[in-house]
Amino acid sequence: MLEAKEVDLPFINQAGHWNESTMTSVYLSGHNRPALRAMSGFEKIKRAYYLPRATVTPARHIEQQLFGWVDRAQETLNKRIGTDEQDLAGLGLIKCIKFVR
Fold first, then answer.
1. HEC-encoded secondary structure of the chain
2. Would you call 94 exposed, middle or buried from its count of C-beta atoms within 10 A (0-12, 13-18, 19+)?
3. CA–CA separation, 7 vs 93, rounded Å?
4. Contact 76/48 with Cβ under 8 angstroms?
5. Are 86 and 80 spatial neighbours (Cβ–Cβ below 8 Å)?
6. pLDDT by residue (tens digit) across 27-56?
7. Cα 47 → chain centroid
8. Which pLDDT band, with edges at 50, 70 and 90, does 60 fall under?
């Protein structure tokens, strides 16, 4: 986990009270993160990434074909606000689905 967060090896060893040979052979993945990042198309700068799909907005009719039920579900859940049947978790889920669609 610390390796994934790119904590330097000496600090990982110190945190786990491991010697370097045990740490390398047992706990580390053995993958070269900078090389994997470069091969995956990510920038060298940490935490910088680009998702091509985030720049494309699908046509509304395609969204309706795939996610038409989402707007109807939101309307139904909005009508229940303030009643005994209100579902805030359901509204949160709808909000998430609308964000990723």
1. CCCCCCCCHHHHHHHHCCCHHHHHHHHCCCCCHHHHHHHCCCCCCCCCCCCHHHHCCCCHHHHHHHHHHHHHHHHHHHHCCCCCCCCHHHHHHHHHHHHHC
2. buried
3. 34
4. no
5. yes
6. 666 677 777 777 777 776 766 666 676 777
7. 13
8. confident
